[in-house]
Design brief:
CATH class: Alpha Beta
CATH superfamily: Aldolase class I
CATH topology: TIM Barrel
Shape: globular
Oligomer: single chain
Structural class: alpha/beta
Strand content: 15-25%
Number of helices: 9
Low-confidence stretches: none
Order of helices and strands: EHEHEHEHEHEHEHEHH
Largest sheet: 8 strands, parallel, barrel
């Protein structure tokens, strides 16, 4: 993921699926399998633990030349020198994130099922937008559902890359790519699998 392109497998961590002792090894397997970017997502209130994990992930991602994006937490992204941050509807304002992290940072915005939010994010300077959930998601069962046609509308209306998220598997992913998704954000179909590297390879193969 960079300023001009966002394509491929976007791996998102999960604190339940990846306990502390497995986190770094699991993420490295995803990268070795073909993940093009990694998002660190942990909603716990343990600031010290989150800081240590984010530092470790950032070192790992830099070694593999893969950007680390921190979910929600602009200050944590700044503290560890992450490549950027992903913000949602209830997160700090985009302008605040850009001012804190600088022009070089990658900032993505969750737009759920709403093209208008994505247009606003693009005008504000977002580097990519994310829509979903497109399928039932085991990590967020009550998430807003987005229609497949939204991806087609987005590709016509937007210039920034479009990320699809929510219940994505190697079997249902082709419909999202055909509709225009540039990247696939995946949690369970990657990190809940017995062979994470092989799971990542299956997703990566969809982009070749």
């Amino acid at each position: 993921m960079n300023k001009t392109a966002c394509r491929g497998l976007y791996a998102i961590t999960d604190a339940v699926l990846l306990p502390d002792e497995r986190l770094l090894a699991a993420v490295e397997q995803a990268i070795l399998g073909g993940a093009r970017s990694v998002q660190y997502r942990d909603k716990s209130g343990d600031g010290g633990r989150r800081l240590a994990q984010a530092h470790g992930l950032n070192r790992l991602c830099r070694r593999h030349q893969v950007p680390l994006i921190v979910n929600d937490d602009v200050e944590l992204a700044a503290q560890v020198g992450a490549a950027g941050v992903h913000i949602g509807r209830n997160d700090p304002a985009f302008a605040t994130a850009r001012a804190r992290l600088g022009e070089a940072a990658l900032i993505g915005v969750s737009c759920y099922d709403c093209l208008a939010l994505a247009l606003d994010a693009e005008r504000a300077g977002a580097d990519y937008v994310a829509f979903g959930a497109f399928f039932p998601s085991p990590t967020k069962p009550d998430e807003i559902r987005a229609p497949l046609g939204l991806l087609r509308e987005a590709k016509v209306s937007l210039k920034v890359p479009v990320v699809a998220i929510g219940g994505i598997t190697p079997d249902n992913a082709p419909t999202l790519l055909d509709a225009g998704a540039d990247a696939l954000a995946v949690v369970s179909a990657l990190f809940a699998q017995p062979d994470i590297r092989d799971a990542a390879r299956r997703f990566a193969a969809l982009f070749t």
